[in-house]
Structure formats: structure tokens, C-alpha cells
Amino acid sequence: MNKESILRNIGSLPNSTYVFVVITLVCAAGIPNFASANNISTLLQQSCILTLLSVAMALSIITKGIDLSVGGVVSFAGIIMALLMSSGAGEGLAILIGFIAAMVFGFLNGFIIVKLKVAPFIATFGMMGIAQGVANLLSNKRAIYLTDQAGLIKLRLIPFLRHNLLEIDLGGGQILGINMIVVITAAVLVLLLLLYKKTVLSAYMYALGNNAETAKLSNINVDFWNIFVYMLTGLLAGIASLLMLLRLNSAQPTAGDGLEFQAVVAAVLGGNPLSGGKGSLPGAIMGALTVFVVRNGLTLVGANSNFIMIILGVVLVLGMIMNDVASRGFKAKGACKQ
Amino acid sequence: MKKIVSVLAIALLGMAILACGASASKEDQNAAKANEKTYKIAFIVKSLQSAFFLSMMEAAEKCDADFDEITVDILAPQTPFNIDEQIQLVEQCITNKVDAIVIAPCDSVGIIPAIEKANAAGIPVVTPNTKSAGGKILSYVGVENYNVGYDLGAALCEKLGGKGNILLMEGKAGNSTSEERTRGVKDAVKKYAGIKLLDSQPTDWDRAKSMTVMENWLQTYDKIDGVLTLTKDIGLGALEAIRAAGRGKDIVSITFDIDNDVIAAFKSGDLYGSGNQNEKSQAYIAITSALFALKGYVVDSNQILPLTVVTAESYK
Questions:
Q1: pLDDT band (50, 70, 90) for residue A271
Q2: Which of A273-282, B24-33, B228-237 is predicted most confidently?
Q3: pLDDT: which is higher, A337 or A269
Q4: Domain match, B113 and B126 both
């Protein structure tokens, strides 16, 4: 690889990568314990749920939509899975039905937006309330605890999915643990990125986001792909809900509360402008990781929680300015696609 | 060029974070000089947006100032009452090797995996205000939330002479404090055949939301004899709505927790009763319990504080 192509590769990274790298390096240099194996294991595990939701949000944003129902669906699908498991259905089946239920919500989102012509913000905001309400009704507003109740139900899959797949002892009490939650997230992201880059999906989505009319004229089945995208975000929310279930070892009716807005922040920070038509999935992953690095670093320093909120706000604004400046810079050099 | 500027801006922000870390560690060093043995205690509450937890945090700050041998780090989830964020905070406290964790869990069941992680790391955990349903807990400091609901419910029914229409404002759906208190209220009401619970609705522990709920109820029901609210924030919201509708004379209000606003409401005659759970004492006792345990003393595993129901009569 010559120097030029390395430079070109660096230039084509999503802009949020720079924000992420700079902040991570600063934290690693300045905060004791930050770069420790233990902390990196925790950090990776913590960021999984938001990473999936951030990518889901990016998908909907690129097609000029938004999916505010992801938080509600996380609560709802988790309750469905836990209820089925505690009623004796197999764990695999319960998880599958949970995913399907999440996709049904995604389908409804898409259907309402495409066929009934409701604005995505309103449609998915409504669905958020519906998903949360159904979760409350089904659970009777109580947490559902996954446990071997007096030997009645024997859980095998859930404990397996919660354990550390790999534990690398680095000596000095430092153990780098790779949890199954991280493995699942990585697998889902790789599959999704392959689907996105190697098929027509990305091209169709950009077409949808930029000009739906032109897309229609170029023989793209706009309605189908639009609904498909919302089903995909629904499925991702369903998977996030499984991860939440694993982390809490129980289903909380309010588990997904507020996650939709964190996902919007992460996706936007990752270079997915709300105006739609452009954006990047790897960027959304970087955005979510950045949010967690900042939060983790500041907590380790012992910063006041109010202060963390302020810093996250500042990071978002600075990140946005940087995205904007960088994309204008590239355009000037003729390197931008559009 | 502009790109360089923005990279610089990010770097600057990083410096700010660093400076923050540096000053924090300097503090630690000073403390270490003053006293050879310093314990770092993490104090985790449920929300930064609730007057109740701000009051607990005040007590934690007081504790930090009172004892030279401890530093108290106060933490809270950014989304109020979010259990996953609370678990994240506990995990980070473990990474940071704190000496003890004092936490009011957002959910008694959901917090268990985090408590188990702390147990595995050998860090003692004290829970003020809300219990954990599992894991090894050094001590619980607080009232029984079921009893809070039961006592308040009974006090309201007694005041109404055992008959009338009442309404209940819950906290946040799915939040164990709210659910336990609600269960207590409903059990108490069942004992009075003449009392009818017209409706019971969650308010997310939020004052503005409770006002809306009360306004709707005032529209819906012609005859309301009593309103029970599970904490003062929503109690005061409900009172605003009742005052605005001019129906204060007909409705007996009971809430929970006490501060200056509640005392003012007692004096003006708008509020009939409230319960006191001494949240400041909960925080202070929980932190000192952790300190005592770290110094090798035995601490009682269940420190139940007395629950007192106060009525307007005591302010006359």
C-alpha cells in the first residue's frame, strides 16, 4: 500500500472517527484505570445496546425518516420474551417471538408512514407510546425476573448468553473479558454492514432519502424499501431488547425509556444529519462509542453527573460543527459523492 | 484549515476533561496527606431531577465534609430512574476500585446483576431508601415502602370516616418504590368497605404531569373526597390543580415526604397529612454504616427507620 492510498483511506473514514479517536486517546492518557483491561471490557459491554439502536436510527435517518419507537420497542419486546420464558416456552422460541413482535412494530411504523402518509416523527412517536403502553399492560407494570423458579423452569440459553466467552488474563489482576453480549453485537453489526454495502440496500436508501420521486421514476419500489427499513430498525430494537434482558437478568417495563433520544444523539454525532439523504452506519457506531467513552471517562474521574450532561451536549455540538466543516472541505476538493 | 480548528476544539475539550481528572486526583492526594487511611465511597441515587434525591445528596455532601477519612462521589443516571444506566455506574465504580458503594436502586430486581458484580469484586454495598431483591447487601437503611402505602392509605380512610371516593397518584410505572407503595395503599383501602378507589394513575414522579392528571380527574369526577399522592412533588402538583378549581375545601389530600413547601401547604390548610421517611438520615446513616463496616465494625443488616404520619393538626 503506498502513501497516497493510505491517506485516501484515512480521508474516507467517517468524520466521527476523529472525534472518537481524539477523545479516547485523551481519556487513555489522562484518566487512570480508563485503559485498563477491566474498564475496556465494561465499556464494550455497556455500549452494545446504544450502538445497535444508533445504527437503527441511522438507517431511518438516511431514508429521511426517524424511528422514535425504538425505546418503546426495547421495553415491549423484552417483556414479551420474559413472559414467554417464565410461562415455560423454550428460551429460543421466546427470543424468536420477541424479535418477530419487534419487527411487527417496525412493519406498522412503515405501513403508517408509507401508506397512511403520516410524518415519520409523529407516526413513530405514537408507536413509542403504544409499545410502552402494551409493555405496561402485559407486565402489570412489574419487572419480570428470569430465574429458575423452584426448579420449574430450567434456563440454559440465557445464562450461556450472559457469560464471558473469553477471559484473557493479562496479569496483575487485569482480565480482558469478552462477553457474549459483545459477540452478539459484533456479529449483528457485521451482518448488517455486509447487507448494506454488498447489496442494493445502501443505494436504494440514499435514493429514497434524497428524492423519493426520482427513486420511483427509476423503478425502485419505494414503498417496499421504506417499510423494509422500518422492519430492520424494529428487528435491531428487538435484538437490543434481548441484550437489555441479558444485562438486567430481568425484563423492566421501562427498560427502553429515553433510549430513542440517546440513539438520535449518537447517530447525529456519527454524521447522520437529520435532514436525511446522507449518512454512515460505521459513523453511527462511532457516535455511540464516543458517547460511552465520554460518559465512562468522566465517571471514572468522579465528575458530577450534571457536569457529564453538559459535556455530552458540548461534544454533540462540536462534533456537528466538525462534521459540517469536514464535509464542506471534502466537497471543495471534489471528493464528495454528491 | 477549518478541520484543523475543529480538531483543536476537540483536543481542547479533552484537555478540560484531563484538567478535571488532574484536579480530582490532587484533591485525593491532599486528603491522603491529611489522613493516612482514606476511603472512597460512591453514593448513587436515582435521579438528578427530583427534589427528594437532591435532599439525599445534600446529606451525602454533609457526610463527606464531616468525616476526614472518606470522600463521597455522588452519581446519578442521566435518564431519571433508568436502571441500566445505574448498572453502568456501579460497573464503573468497580473499575475505579471504590471502597464501598451506597446505592438507592431504581429497581429492586433489576439492580441484582450489578450488586452481584460488586460482591464478586469484594466491595461492600449499602442500600438506602430502596431494597435490592438479591445479592449480598451489607445493610438496608430506610422505611418499608409497602408500609408507607398502607399507613398513608389507612390514615386517609380514617380521616374520611371510612366512606367516600378517593383517587391515587402513583409514581413511575414499573418502579419498585411506586409499585410497593401502591400495593400498600390498595390493601389498606380494601379494609374499608365504604371507600371507593375511583382511579389510580402513574405520574412519573413528575410535578407537571401530576397537575395534568388531577385536572383531568376534576373534570371527570363530581364527587372526590380524598386524594393520595405517593410523594410530595406530585402531591404539590395535585394541590395546584385542586386550588385552581376551587375544590380544596371538599378534598382531603395526603402525600409523602416533608419539606418547607409541604409545611406551607399544611399551614394554609390545603394539605391534611404527609409521611416522613427522613431521607437525609437514610443517606447519612447508609454512608456512615459503610464507613463503620470498612473499619471492621459489625453493622445491622436491616436498619428500618421509623415512619411517622404527620397531619395538619400538629401545625395548628
A1: confident
A2: B228-237
A3: A269
A4: yes
Classify residue B22: in a domain, yes or no.
Answer: no
Q: B223 and B167 share a domain?
A: yes
B 61-100 residues with CB < 8 A to A: 73-79, 81-84, 87-89, 91-92, 94-97
- Chain A CB contacts of B79 under 8 Å are 257-258, 262
Domain containing B92 equals: 35-143+279-306
Is B134 inside any structural domain?
yes
Instruction: Find chain A residues with C-beta within 8 A of B96's C-beta.
Output: 33, 299-300, 302
Q: How confident is the model at residue A338 (pLDDT cuts 50, 70, 90)?
A: very low
* CA distance to partner chain B, nearest, from residue A161 (Å): 14
- B194 forms beta bridges with B163
Same domain, B107 and B193: no
pLDDT at A335 over 60: no
pTM here is 0.80
Minimal Cβ distance to A248: which of B16, B81, B83: B83
Amino acid sitting at position B153: G
Q: Does the beta-carbon distance from A30 to B18 stay under 8 Å?
A: yes
Sheet containing B139-142: which strands, arranged edge to edge? B70-75, B39-44, B100-103, B125-128, B139-142, B302-304
Q: Decide if B314 is inside a domain.
A: no
| B174/A139 touch (CB, cutoff 8 Å), yes or no | yes
C-alpha span between A38 and B94 (Å, rounded): 9
Span of B1-5, B88-92, B203-207 with lowest mean pLDDT: B1-5
Nearest CA distance, A110 vs chain B (angstrom): 28
